[in-house]
């Protein structure tokens, strides 16, 4: 199978924070890969804008170094790199002042797609939007891309949305969540809504429960001071896990259209029940050898911020009544893995011996690493000796299933940036979606703060606190093993 690469229209992409870590690690390497794949047209330009004083030549040198660092050697081509660097320009700019804005206005073209990537802290979003408007740089079809966090709570999210809405319409604002750019996440919609096989079974009658896991092996490290003000709930659950929950639980949209999809996601968030205190477990990783504990990383020996959270969630609608969703995410766990597991109910009556009772159908969707899907099915073990049942996976690892001729699965940022240029908002969060997520999250955070709860410690390299295991055991269920 050979994948198709469809070039986008000519564009100007302006990266505010163009010398920052995200630009060097993800945005610029992603754009280079799109050029190497033939998706960026000859008329594309990328303009870095940041506080640092340098000229276009200095910026190209910096980007060349970033590509050599963050793009694997086998993916680099000298001619392609030279072609990419020739598309670059740079403007020193003051986000809160007037310096650099006239120069940027002179560079940006009015007759091509304009995309403004705010790869900066949220405190600067309003300033950048205001100056793009004041200097009449952004045209009526311009798009802005904003990174999370989309606020710290409901109040700040509303203020952030309002500051952007002063100068841009909602259909011009692209709130990027890289999890939604993963190939498997989009394939989840294709599997659900493009195949008759699953959708009739996608409900409380046939599904016992659903597990969503996002596990990381890294700690908070040098981000400790920042992370300690957010924690796993704000950093992961409110956005990444919430979006995965919406896609797995939403009703079929009337069409594959940005607002139709996001309308259905919003309904899921608004149907979420409040989570009971005994259905939430919070944890902090402990020290392991020379590796510091969370509190040491955070620089606060009394910190009550969680590096791990697990919870049992219910959705109050006809499709999911009484079907639990178990969410967990954490730092310094045993493996780096992101997975959605749809666990189907047992057969209502087994015609085989009791050994069949432990065999369930499980659809597992792996987001990282090795993106793909498995469906566990029960078959007879080959050979003589009676009807012995075993569970085997039907494997759909993309790299294996699609063959060697298919283009390597693009990084999430590559796909999402190209969607911005196309003007496709399907995989981006809408303002009311963000606010609804915070409206559900805030009471949970306020609740454990009022109760003075201290997170449970867990061993680094483990699967998390023992209390999280008990959360499942009380329901006679078990977490799936966290595998690399």
UniProtKB/TrEMBL annotation:
<feature type="binding site">
    <location>
        <position position="235"/>
    </location>
    <ligand>
        <name>substrate</name>
    </ligand>
</feature>
<dbReference type="InterPro" id="IPR022674">
    <property type="entry name" value="G6P_DH_NAD-bd"/>
</dbReference>
<dbReference type="GO" id="GO:0009051">
    <property type="term" value="P:pentose-phosphate shunt, oxidative branch"/>
</dbReference>
<feature type="binding site">
    <location>
        <position position="216"/>
    </location>
    <ligand>
        <name>substrate</name>
    </ligand>
</feature>
<keyword id="KW-0313">Glucose metabolism</keyword>
<keyword id="KW-0119">Carbohydrate metabolism</keyword>
<feature type="domain" description="Glucose-6-phosphate dehydrogenase C-terminal">
    <location>
        <begin position="189"/>
        <end position="480"/>
    </location>
</feature>
<protein>
    <recommendedName>
        <fullName>Glucose-6-phosphate 1-dehydrogenase</fullName>
        <ecNumber>1.1.1.49</ecNumber>
    </recommendedName>
</protein>
<dbReference type="GO" id="GO:0005829">
    <property type="term" value="C:cytosol"/>
</dbReference>
<dbReference type="GO" id="GO:0004345">
    <property type="term" value="F:glucose-6-phosphate dehydrogenase activity"/>
</dbReference>
<keyword id="KW-0521">NADP</keyword>
<dbReference type="GO" id="GO:0050661">
    <property type="term" value="F:NADP binding"/>
</dbReference>
<dbReference type="InterPro" id="IPR019796">
    <property type="entry name" value="G6P_DH_AS"/>
</dbReference>
<comment type="pathway">
    <text>Carbohydrate degradation; pentose phosphate pathway; D-ribulose 5-phosphate from D-glucose 6-phosphate (oxidative stage): step 1/3.</text>
</comment>
<feature type="active site" description="Proton acceptor">
    <location>
        <position position="240"/>
    </location>
</feature>
<feature type="binding site">
    <location>
        <begin position="17"/>
        <end position="24"/>
    </location>
    <ligand>
        <name>NADP(+)</name>
    </ligand>
</feature>
<feature type="domain" description="Glucose-6-phosphate dehydrogenase NAD-binding">
    <location>
        <begin position="14"/>
        <end position="187"/>
    </location>
</feature>
<dbReference type="InterPro" id="IPR036291">
    <property type="entry name" value="NAD(P)-bd_dom_sf"/>
</dbReference>
<feature type="binding site">
    <location>
        <position position="182"/>
    </location>
    <ligand>
        <name>substrate</name>
    </ligand>
</feature>
<feature type="binding site">
    <location>
        <position position="148"/>
    </location>
    <ligand>
        <name>NADP(+)</name>
    </ligand>
</feature>
<dbReference type="InterPro" id="IPR001282">
    <property type="entry name" value="G6P_DH"/>
</dbReference>
<feature type="binding site">
    <location>
        <position position="51"/>
    </location>
    <ligand>
        <name>NADP(+)</name>
    </ligand>
</feature>
<comment type="function">
    <text>Catalyzes the oxidation of glucose 6-phosphate to 6-phosphogluconolactone.</text>
</comment>
<keyword id="KW-0560">Oxidoreductase</keyword>
<feature type="binding site">
    <location>
        <position position="178"/>
    </location>
    <ligand>
        <name>substrate</name>
    </ligand>
</feature>
<dbReference type="Pfam" id="PF00479">
    <property type="entry name" value="G6PD_N"/>
</dbReference>
<dbReference type="InterPro" id="IPR022675">
    <property type="entry name" value="G6P_DH_C"/>
</dbReference>
<comment type="similarity">
    <text>Belongs to the glucose-6-phosphate dehydrogenase family.</text>
</comment>
<feature type="binding site">
    <location>
        <position position="331"/>
    </location>
    <ligand>
        <name>substrate</name>
    </ligand>
</feature>
<dbReference type="Pfam" id="PF02781">
    <property type="entry name" value="G6PD_C"/>
</dbReference>
<dbReference type="GO" id="GO:0006006">
    <property type="term" value="P:glucose metabolic process"/>
</dbReference>
């Amino acid at each position: 199978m050979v994948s198709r690469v469809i070039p986008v229209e000519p564009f100007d992409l302006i990266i505010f924070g163009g010398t920052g870590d995200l630009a060097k690690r993800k945005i610029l390497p992603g754009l280079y890969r799109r050029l190497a794949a033939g998706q960026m047209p000859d008329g594309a330009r990328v303009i870095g804008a940041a506080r640092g004083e340098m000229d276009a030549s200095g910026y190209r040198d910096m980007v060349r170094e970033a590509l050599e660092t963050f793009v694997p050697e086998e993916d680099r081509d000298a001619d392609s790199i030279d072609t990419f660097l020739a598309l670059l320009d740079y403007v020193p700019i003051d986000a809160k002042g007037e310096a650099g804005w006239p120069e940027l206005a002179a560079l940006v073209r009015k007759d091509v797609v304009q995309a403004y990537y705010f790869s900066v802290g949220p405190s600067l979003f309003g300033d950048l939007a205001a100056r793009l408007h004041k200097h009449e740089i952004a045209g009526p079809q311009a798009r802005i891309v904003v990174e999370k966090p989309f606020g710290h709570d409901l109040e700040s999210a509303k203020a952030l949305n309002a500051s952007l809405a002063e100068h841009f319409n909602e259909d011009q604002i692209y709130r990027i969540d890289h999890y939604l750019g993963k190939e498997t996440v989009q394939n989840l919609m294709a599997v659900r809504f493009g195949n008759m096989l699953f959708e009739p079974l996608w409900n409380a009658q046939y599904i016992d429960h659903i597990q969503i896991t996002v596990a990381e092996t890294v700690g908070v490290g040098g981000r400790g001071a920042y992370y300690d003000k957010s924690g796993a709930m704000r950093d992961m659950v409110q956005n990444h896990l919430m979006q995965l929950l919406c896609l797995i639980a939403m009703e079929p949209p009337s069409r594959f259209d940005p607002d139709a999809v996001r309308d259905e996601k919003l309904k899921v968030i608004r149907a979420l029940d409040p989570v009971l205190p005994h259905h939430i477990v919070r944890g902090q990783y402990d020290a392991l050898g020379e590796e510091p504990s969370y509190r040491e990383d955070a620089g606060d020996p009394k910190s009550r911020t969680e590096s791990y959270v697990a919870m049992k969630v219910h959705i109050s609608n006809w499709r999911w009544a009484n079907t639990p969703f178990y969410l967990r995410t954490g730092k310094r766990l045993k493996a780096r893995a992101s997975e959605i597991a749809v666990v189907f109910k047992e057969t209502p009556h087994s015609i085989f011996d009791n050994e069949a009772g432990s065999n369930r159908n499980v659809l597992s969707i792996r987001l990282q690493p090795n993106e793909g899907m498995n469906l566990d099915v029960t078959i007879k073990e080959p050979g003589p000796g009676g009807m012995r049942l075993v569970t085997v996976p039907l494997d759909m690892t993309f790299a294996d299933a699609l063959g060697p001729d298919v283009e390597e699965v693009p990084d999430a940022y590559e796909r999402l940036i190209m969607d911005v240029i196309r003007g496709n908002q399907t995989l981006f969060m809408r303002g009311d979606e963000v606010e609804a997520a915070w409206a559900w999250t805030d009471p949970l955070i306020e609740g454990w703060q009022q109760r003075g709860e201290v997170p449970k410690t867990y061993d680094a390299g483990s699967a998390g606190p023992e209390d999280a295991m008990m959360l499942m055991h009380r329901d006679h269920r078990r977490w799936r093993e966290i595998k690399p």
